[in-house]
């Protein structure tokens, strides 16, 4: 007996029309119909059987349309983004909804959902709403994920008509060629490499960035090729072998990619930590390839060379993954990261480096010797305060 599937839409053409309103083609120059699409989805919900992907697309799109500082407060905009994003993630990874009970991180890995989404959802739920910059970027990434994992396959073609169906294959081929060119050029003699390494790295990285910009899957393909081809580690690496040459070879290249596509480093960090525990055959302390990936992740997360890029690394998620999947490498990584996090300069350490004169000045409230700026301000009637009054507001001064 044929299986009957009930849908909220009458036929597939209605769903395709809504998809076009949410994701108009690059050549479309008509009116913005996203608000209409959100209204249609809301009507569909009254009928029932609306897939979570469709509802989440409407919620995220509506949050974008709500992003109007002239008519809405910043707090309400952040709250709307946070609510839409949390509902999108929770509906996918909450183990209480369907299937066996598992952690949200484990469900995210199974679904191919970026683990940083789960971390951001936890922050938005249990802490202050994230900044608008973070929320806007995450919402856009969520819509891209929904396209790849639902909307692109609605018509059975797996792609929008305005996108080349062979784009993924051709993009992969082009990125592979550029990476091999980079790898081969870096294998030249040491003297030649020192003279032209930086220029070549930047030149090839610029070409790779252009390819990634022209394809919505470019940065993901780049990451897959780097790891599948063992370009960052070398296929014949021996246990205990130094990785300094590889770090020197790839740092500038990877950092240029990160500057253009910050989520590349987020995805790279997530994939590196997954490699430490996903494959049970490679968790042995004597596995050279796993050691190399461990050293790469440690280098990115703790090296001063990567300091300005480290905010893009999901530190909390990495530590959580290590705690939930204990083995030799994850325990060692946890120790390294926590050791690195504990040596940050604190307020007390900064005060301990003050000279006695500076310390006395700070404690007594005396101001530093007047500068040219002070003299200029004094000419306009401004006078510096010799001693700060630290009374709380509303407390009368004692006589």
TrEMBL record:
Pfam families: Las1. It comes from Penicillium angulare. GO terms for molecular function: endonuclease activity. GO terms for biological process: maturation of 5.8S rRNA; maturation of LSU-rRNA. PANTHER family: RIBOSOMAL BIOGENESIS PROTEIN LAS1L. GO terms for cellular component: Las1 complex; preribosome, large subunit precursor. InterPro entries: Las1. Residues 340-376 are annotated as: Disordered. This is Las1-like. It comes from the Eukaryota.
């Amino acid at each position: 007996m044929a299986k009957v599937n009930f849908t909220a839409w009458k036929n597939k053409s209605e769903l395709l029309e809504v998809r076009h309103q949410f994701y108009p083609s690059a050549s479309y120059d008509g009116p913005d119909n996203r608000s209409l699409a959100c209204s249609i989805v809301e009507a569909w919900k009254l009928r029932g059987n609306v897939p979570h992907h469709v509802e989440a697309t409407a919620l995220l799109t509506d949050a974008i349309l709500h992003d109007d500082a002239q008519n809405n407060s910043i707090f309400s905009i952040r709250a709307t983004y946070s609510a839409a994003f949390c509902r999108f993630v929770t509906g996918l990874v909450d183990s209480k909804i369907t299937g066996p009970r598992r952690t949200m991180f484990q469900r995210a890995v199974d679904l191919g959902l970026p683990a940083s989404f789960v971390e951001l959802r936890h922050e938005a739920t249990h802490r202050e709403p994230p900044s608008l910059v973070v929320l806007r970027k995450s919402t856009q990434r969520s819509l891209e994920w929904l396209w790849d994992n639902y909307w692109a396959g609605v018509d059975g073609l797996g792609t929008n008509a305005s996108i080349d169906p062979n784009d993924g294959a051709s993009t992969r081929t082009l990125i592979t060629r550029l990476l091999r060119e980079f790898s081969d050029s870096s294998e030249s003699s040491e003297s030649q490499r020192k003279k032209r390494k930086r220029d070549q790295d930047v030149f090839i990285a610029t070409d790779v960035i252009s390819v990634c910009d022209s394809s919505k899957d470019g940065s993901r393909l780049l990451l897959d090729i780097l790891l599948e081809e063992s370009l960052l580690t070398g296929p014949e690496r021996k246990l205990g072998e130094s990785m300094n040459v590889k770090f020197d070879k790839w740092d500038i290249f990877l950092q240029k990619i990160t500057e253009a596509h910050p989520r590349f480093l987020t995805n790279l960090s997530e994939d590196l930590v997954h490699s430490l525990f996903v494959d049970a055959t490679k968790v042995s302390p004597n596995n050279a390839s796993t050691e190399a990936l461990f050293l790469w992740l440690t280098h990115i997360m703790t090296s001063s060379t990567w300091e300005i890029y480290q905010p893009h690394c999901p530190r909390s998620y990495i530590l959580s993954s290590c705690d939930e999947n204990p083995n030799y490498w994850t325990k060692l990584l946890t120790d390294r990261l926590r050791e690195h996090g504990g040596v940050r300069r604190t307020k007390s350490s900064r005060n301990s480096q003050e000279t006695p004169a500076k310390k006395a000045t700070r404690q007594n409230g005396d101001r530093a010797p007047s500068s040219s700026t002070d003299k200029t301000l004094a000419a306009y009637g401004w006078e510096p305060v010799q001693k700060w009054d630290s009374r709380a507001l509303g407390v009368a001064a004692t006589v």
